[in-house]
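Practice problem: 4-hydroxybenzoate synthetase
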Amino acid sequence: MNSQLIYTTGANHPANLNEWLSCSTSLTDKLQAIIGKVELKVLNQQWTDVDWFVRHMLHVDDQSIFLREILMNGCEHHYWYARTIIPQSCYQIDPEFFRRLENESMRNLIFDGQRVKRGLQQCYSISEFNIEYHWVKKYLPFINATLWLRLVQYQLDDKEHFYLYEILLPDLERV
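Answer key — structure tokens:
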């Protein structure tokens, strides 16, 4: 993972997001404990070519990645957008493991077993000047605020890495 960000707003995160940004357990479980029913909406799930951003920021040398985008909703609010990037070399370690994403959440793969280990994490603010911001705007065009992102690197079977971007949305600040 590249620790040199291309652009950050330099803003300080709101105090009420601190526990969400620093959470090392499931954000889904945390949200569900507070509001009750939550809904994961899969926006996109497909194989795609590695782009400049993934190659530069995550140092992925593979030709393709498995990309998954979701929105976490509940009580008619949007709480976060998540983007999972699984390089082909990681996916090929155990395709059946990742095929579970057809019917399960990433939460199950990460937290319901011993195969996935949490690695590096970065948290930073994003605005319209960041590529990451436009991932969200594609699905939620009405968003018009500085957002907070956390990027976590995970490792499968002590071998290859995959990455999870979680962009916290303004409704989460009010939880």
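Discussion: DSSP finds seven helices and six strands in the chain. Students who identified this feature from the tokens alone can consider the problem solved.
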